[in-house]
Amino acid sequence: MAIAVLAMLAAVSFLPVLLTPIPAMVDYPNHLARMYILSQSGTPDANPHYEVAWAFYPNLGMDLLVPQMARLISVESATRLFLLLSQLLIVSGALLLEWVRKGRVQLAGFAALAFLYCLPFSWGFVNFEFGLGLALWGIAVYLMLAEGPWPLRFAANLIFVAALYVAHFFSLGIYGATLGLFELSHIRQRQVAYSVAAARLGALALPALALFAIMHVTAGSVGSEGTSWFLGFKPVWPLRIMNGYNLTTAAATGLALTIALLLAARRGALRLDTAGIWLAVGFTLLYLVIPSKLFGTSFVDLRVIPAAALILPAFCSLSLPNRAWRMAALAGISGIILLNLAVVLSVWLPYRADYASIIASFQKIDRGSRVLVGSTDDNGDPPFADLTSYPMYYAPTLAVHYAGAFVPNLFTEVGKQPVRPREAVRKISIPYGGPVQSGLLAAIATGQPPADIPPFIRTWSQDFDYLYVLGSPAANPLPDRLEVLETSARFVLYRIRRKS
């Protein structure tokens, strides 16, 4: 019964990706724009404002795979296929890990589907999702070979470490932390001698250390500088993690799941084995101490939560007293999965028209132009009051393909992406950032700029040709400088009139 329900839930859980040409995930349009640049590099259709510069650094999963897939299908389809592959890796990896550990499938599949559209995934951290799915497979293979010949285990670890380094650096960290804690738990249980455990831990770390050494010698990098702790969000993320679009749904489903697990554990129905206890404590400590922003990468700490949710089911058992309890548990987790899925579909399906509208507006932009993106949001940060508007944040970056344009907030951060702005536009590029507040743009244009004005927009009305203002349409803030070309429910496109 449970397997049949799991299969049906899995089938419907992949529908959002299959039904939407451009999934309504925050970072996804930005990634798609970069895939167009990589796929068209060296061809007559190459964007004139960007160049491709490869180096020995991680976070290149989709950058390496999608352009190769795009040789056979369209770039848009190849990028969406990569996302679907990432989801399949998440679900199948969780199932394989549980089967290897317990010899049966019980909890992991439901946990994977419950977190398939959690906050970091629905916000479009696609390389992380792909890397985490790969890490689940790597952990499962390592445990499968744990008692086998050490050369085979070492070779498997070497392959997965190299693949995870390329795919996503933080996923490699999750892989290493999980297996390290697993080996330490064996010492605590006195199942292996200290010398053997030390040798295993050394063999685990050796490939990663070698890769870091190569990265240092070749002047590679993990990302930019910048480490911050936003401690106030640590207690909040567990209740926001389940859904990236609706905070009420996220809190309700997260709280319901937490209460159910705590009650099951208190009654002795849910139990972690010794390795599971080590992993649970380790993940908790990791979540508490890891910065929210590390090497220029944001939301690092909240990524620990789905990783723990996908790994821990393999190390715990659930024993419900009778069929009625089992049916109630099945109905509860199915309800959580379907509720989150309904929210995702309610956002993604309408965005098909919104994305089609902004793509159509690119026809009104002269090819090769410079396009600035502004927002009516007061502070330019993610609009937590209405997360359903967040997927439009990077939609204008698709102009790099449809209009051969330069868009300053295309992801081009050194150490993360192999795409660079050319020298002529580098000074007005934003390596990693969202739209600029429209109020700030108006203040600059009227000669009332603040003292700490960012350099890339100091002369925006002279440097750029067009301006997208995201948000609900409002009155033209600068009628003498901006000409309205297109108005939509989520944006307004202006032509910038330059002063002579």
TrEMBL record:
Ranges that cross the membrane: 81-100, 112-145, 157-182, 203-224, 244-265, 272-290, 302-320, 327-351
Alphabetical keyword list: Membrane, Transmembrane, Transmembrane helix
Superkingdom classification of source: Bacteria
Coiled-coil region(s): none
Descriptive protein name: Glycosyltransferase RgtA/B/C/D-like domain-containing protein
